[in-house]
Amino acid sequence: MSACGAVVGGVSLDNIDIATQAVIQGVVTVGAAPANLGYVRLLDRNDEFVAEMPVSKLGEFRFFAAAGDWTIVTLVPSATKRTPTTAELGKIVDINIQLA
Fold first, then answer.
1. I need a surface site. Which of 40, 61, 64, 97 has the fewest CB within 10 A?
2. Is the Cα dihedral 75, 76, 79, 81 positive or negative?
3. How far is CA 65 from the centre of its chain?
4. What pTM was estimated for this model as a whole?
5. Contact, 40 vs 28, CB < 8 A?
6. Are 49 and 43 in contact (CB under 8 A)?
7. Per DSSP, what are the bridge partners of residue 75?
8. What is the average pLDDT value for the chain, to the nearest integer?
9. Using H for helix, E for strand and C for coil, what is the string for the chain?
């Protein structure tokens, strides 16, 4: 859980075979509140664009990625942040991205 009360990653993964997936998920907050307006981008190790999604009303996002090194770029009004991470098959990477 994040400090704002949103569940990291949002929707349940109960019906997903995590053993065959590399999941990167998290919650974006601005101050103490979830960022309910903005986008999260997934960039590969060469800084190339792979995917983009809007954050949910609770600031949540989730990507199913290949194993390896990634960068999460968070874009909300008046703030941008880059967060490096590594995805592994069979693991869920939970990221809390705090913006001022």
1. 64
2. negative
3. 11
4. 0.85
5. yes
6. yes
7. 39, 80
8. 89
9. CCCCCCCCCCCCCCCCCHHHCEEEEEEEEECCEECCCCEEEEECCCCCEEEEEECCCCCEEEEEECCEEEEEEEEECCEEEEEEEEECCCEEEEEEEEEC
Measured between alpha carbons, how far is 35 from 66 in angstroms, rounded to an integer? 26
Token pair 């942040």 in the structure block, residue: 81
State how far the Cα of 78 lies from the Cα of 91, in Å rounded to an integer: 32
End-to-end CA distance of the chain: 19
Sequence letter at residue 76: V
pLDDT one-digit tens code per residue, 51-93: 999 999 999 999 999 999 999 999 999 899 999 999 999 999 9
Class of domain 19-99 as given by CATH:
mainly beta
